[in-house]
Amino acid sequence: MGLNYIWDLLVQAKEAGIHKRDISFVPAQVYSPYMELSLEDLNAAAGGQVEVEVNPFYRFYDVFRDLLDINLTEDEEFRHALFDILIHFLAELDFMQGMNKREYHIRFVLRDLEAGAFGERVKERIGLFERDEREWIACAILRMYDTGETLNLLRSTVSRIFRRSTIYVNSEEKDEMLFYIGQRKTELARRKLELLMELFLPVRYRTEVYWECHVGIIDAEDTMIQDRIAMY
Q1: Among the four 5, 18, 65, 126, which has the fewest Cβ within 10 Å?
Q2: Could you read off the pLDDT of 163-183 as tens digits, one per residue?
Q3: pTM over the 0.85 mark
Q4: What is the Cα–Cα distance from 229 to 218, expressed in whole angstroms?
Q5: For 47-100, how does the pLDDT look when each residue is reduced to its tens digit (9 = 90+)?
């Protein structure tokens, strides 16, 4: 995934385990007028100090037009150090201004998930999910606190992470949920699904999970293929 904005780089750096102090910003000598960063892949630069070239005139012309005046030749080292400090400050400011109240709350939930506030098993497994998936989970947790709803949130979150999945709820005869995941069972997929159940599944519900084979449903031809019908 390519990077464009300095705030996006901070987010990606955190995901890659790179501390902000290990990133230094320098004014780019050659740059595209349509891009703020010339770094395409932060992961390629992981390990030690990361130097990032920035087009300071993409959004901050008024801030840097005098500091980076080509006619200035004195105190170059000082000006570059000041440039690095200013870009770090602008990146933090940019990041905060781009977040609304809901996004702040999502960040707090993510921090609690990663810190073990939801239990050690959740702490161990939340890292199995991609960044977008973790944000979906945190958003669903906030909605659960707001509404008290769990089943629909479980269904929607599972559907977003396992795109081919279908979930059936039987609340009339017995509290039961049938999960059809629609993909090959792997250790990673199994652990992800178990974590979602731990977070959102009401205790009284029993579950059955079907991975590649769907339970046969009369009049639904796609579920009645010979040798592809799961027993219920």
Answers
A1: 65
A2: 988 888 877 777 888 899 988
A3: no
A4: 11
A5: 567 888 888 888 888 888 888 887 777 888 898 899 999 999 988 887 777 666
